[in-house]
Design a protein that fits this description.
single chain; mainly alpha; 0% strand
């Protein structure tokens, strides 16, 4: 694991356990192979407040167009989807 990925994993530690799991799983399973634009979008997403990210992930609020595909990847195969 590179230092950058380690820092990202640390930034995925949120105030909500559900977000911790979703975001950390994305970093572990998909971030490294993601195109640079998606990696940048993920880094910007981490600057968003937890309740907003949570609403995006649960489908309670539509994400902005530039985050829609990323949110779909983050929530793919989540426990709620199984």
């Amino acid at each position: 694991m590179t230092a950058d990925v380690g820092k990202l994993r640390w930034r995925c530690r949120r105030g909500m356990k559900e977000l911790d799991i979703l975001l950390t799983r994305y970093v572990d399973e998909r971030y490294g192979a993601a195109p640079p634009q998606e990696q940048q979008a993920f880094q910007r997403l981490l600057e968003t407040q937890d309740p907003v990210i949570y609403a995006y992930c649960l489908g309670q609020e539509p994400p902005p167009a530039h985050l829609a595909a990323l949110i779909e990847r983050i929530t793919a195969n989540s426990p709620a989807e199984r």
